[in-house]
Amino acid sequence: ISLVVSNTVYPYYCLFSCHVLQESLLSSASGYSNYRGILNWCVVMLVVSINIFFTSSDRYGILVDPIQVVSLFLKDPYNWPASCLIIEHCVNNVFFVFFPVALQGTISETTGTFLYLVNLTTLLFFPSATVLTLTSITPVGGAFALCVYTILFMKLYSYKDVNMWCREIRHTKARTLTPVHTHVSYPGNLTHRDIYYFVFAPTLCYELNFPRSPRIRKSFLLRRLFEMLFFIQLQIGLVQQWMVPTIQNSMKPFQDMDFSRMIERMLKLAVPNHLIWLIFFYWFFHSSMNFVAELMRFGDREFYQDWWNSETVTYFWSNWNIPVHKWCLRHFYKPLMGRGVNKWVAQTAIFLVSAFFHEYLVSVPLKMFRLWAFMGMMSQIPLAWFVGRFLRGNYGNAAVWISLIIGQPIAVLMYVHDFYVLHYVSQS
Amino acid sequence: ISLVVSNTVYPYYCLFSCHVLQESLLSSASGYSNYRGILNWCVVMLVVSINIFFTSSDRYGILVDPIQVVSLFLKDPYNWPASCLIIEHCVNNVFFVFFPVALQGTISETTGTFLYLVNLTTLLFFPSATVLTLTSITPVGGAFALCVYTILFMKLYSYKDVNMWCREIRHTKARTLTPVHTHVSYPGNLTHRDIYYFVFAPTLCYELNFPRSPRIRKSFLLRRLFEMLFFIQLQIGLVQQWMVPTIQNSMKPFQDMDFSRMIERMLKLAVPNHLIWLIFFYWFFHSSMNFVAELMRFGDREFYQDWWNSETVTYFWSNWNIPVHKWCLRHFYKPLMGRGVNKWVAQTAIFLVSAFFHEYLVSVPLKMFRLWAFMGMMSQIPLAWFVGRFLRGNYGNAAVWISLIIGQPIAVLMYVHDFYVLHYVSQS
């Protein structure tokens, strides 16, 4: 009512302030970028689509089978040798790393480093040897075990580095550089409690004093738990109901090398694969990591940055997986730079190491060395150059999305095809 | 390289600034809202989906038929009586409105207002009578003609109002209120050129001096033209390939009143209907209106606001269609308020008038009075109350999306079902 002062005044108000020179919000010239609602739209559309998908599955019938999931990890559900071995070995390994550090005061730096290197090498080679030799480990179970070991490898490497840096500070005279708000200082951090907190915390970079959140918010914890349970079910359901039939349908064109059909099948696989990847991203990097962090009162929740806006390939890779990116920067890139290595050489080296680990995590569980994952990661370098050189703004962003949507199903189909040919065609 | 000062300094840097107390971006607590990239994702997914849809249409075959579209507007493509009549009548009507205004100096205010009312009433009833009596007009052609007439009605109503306000200003002593930067003042605006500019300009509110953009940006114009052509094709294609088969499949359950099947079909229709509505929104409110505005150097491009973030139903209705909202506010809501009408009564009155026009634009072309559209619009009032009262933030936003996704296909199915029963079942 405040707008209308009296019956005669409002016409003047209306007359002269009706149109203003301005751009539409969706024009990039407007500079507007608040699309929070689109995120809710995605969630609503997801729920509607799932409803349709499961109420009208007249094409293949309902293929979702929770028991089948268990059999992916274990060939014989009553016999868990691999999992038990893995858990036990992990616990042992943490001890193996802890002792050289704790003993560093009594043994020499060189002996300590040597013990470390032995342990870290074991951490990579023992599980891969186990996975390759034990026939009772399925590809999914093997991949899971190797992921756990790789994470542990990175964590313990960081633990070793930081404690080494602490000793360097003690030896130099620059002690005044230590910030005053540090609660625990070396060697006060060398406790079992501290290393186990770090092993379970959702980060790969060790720090003496992690920022802690003031309290556990129960409603936040419950919502993340609900999301974790819902999205894991959804992922399994989508893989069984949508991806597996699509992959099975695409085996024939791939064997016949029928190119137009291959492209059609690849595009058809791209949609479920991409959606599952997006759900996986949210499930792992938002729900699960926030759940663990909330439970442990771990304060730093930056598990991802705004990679959805990335206009270059490099921006995507350095923002979608912050724990790994932080680790690479702190324990690989900066030490290399510190030794005077060229910036571009260091970046290429990161992509090489990353490509190696991608290949390691795929080839060993499948017991099949094809280098598709390695080549997929290495192809990011020319792609990054191309996008950075020729595409800007929304076009660059669209190119990143296309490379994600199209690139992944190509790699998936390559491995599945080779696995299929190796195991089913040769037998028949 | 600036980060690494020397070989010994970087460890301290890395050691103490690795983790910071912060929330994840996707948590609403972070306050982050830049999701511009998701918009590009939608475009890329749309293109991929279209590719899949048209390369693998093995279910119904390709149903897209551009010739069929023409026959929607005209039963006999060689005989255009309706369209010709409409165009001619529109031109005449503009003259009918223009003359009373131009003559206002010589004839009395009362005579002028009377001539107006006659003309504006004709503008609503003549076309509806034509559509109802002429059998050569199809429902789509009739709806199009009525939309054109309704837009013209609103424009000429605004033209009349503003010129009346101008005369009021001249009669009162408040001439000093006229802003100095006004280029044209009453009655200098009463020219044919001025009224035709307003008739074709993408706004419903008349103003003596519209803000003008400095020049026609050719690349902007071409991009909007390309979008217009692409999205109109896409809409037609999606209706023919996706919506029509889905609606045809849903006729049987609706006749048998099989409720579980009805809900399944309704959900199945919701997805294509919603996508087509979104494409229509972009096509009409962004591409087409910006194209016309750029061509006419019309400066105010605010054709929509950020309705995708709307957390209440009221916010959605007042932000998704700014030309109509602006008109309602300026020529209906504020005059009512100026006469001392209660705020809630005025708002309900707007919904009532809006519901009348929705019904008018659907029932007359279909020659079938069912009040579904009227009830659909009126049901927004209790919905708005419910959402505003019980839901906040992301939950409110999700509720608005759900009402959009579910509400529209219900209304569409109601009309299609009744139309089908009336025209096909009664004949057989």
Distinctive features:
15 helices, mainly alpha, 428 residues, homodimer, retinol O-fatty-acyltransferase activity (chains A, B)
Task: Report the radius of gyration of chain A as a whole number of Å.
Answer: 26 Å
Query: What is the beta-strand fraction of chain A?
Result: under 5%
Class from helix and strand fractions of chain A: mainly alpha
**What's the overall geometry of chain A?**
globular
For the termini of chain A, the CA-CA separation is 82 Å
Helix content of chain A: 55-70%
Task: Give a nutshell description of this structure.
Helices cover 70% and strands 0% of the residues of chain A.
Descriptive account of the structure:
Two copies of one chain form a homodimer. The first copy, chain A, has 428 residues and is mainly α. Helix content of chain A is 70%, strand content 0%. In chain A, helix 4 runs antiparallel to helix 5 (109-133), helix 6 packs antiparallel against helix 12 and helix 12 runs antiparallel to helix 13. The longest helix of chain A is centred in the middle third of the chain and has 39 residues, at 218-256. Residues 1-11 and 174-181 of chain A have low confidence and may be disordered. Chains A and B meet through helix 1, helix 2, helix 6, helix 9 and helix 11 of A and helix 1, helix 2, helix 6, helix 9 and helix 11 of B. Chains A, B: InterPro entries: Diacylglycerol_acylTrfase1, MBOAT_fam, Oat_ACAT_DAG_ARE. Chains A, B: Homodimer or homotetramer; both forms have similar enzymatic activities. Chains A, B: It is found in: Endoplasmic reticulum membrane.
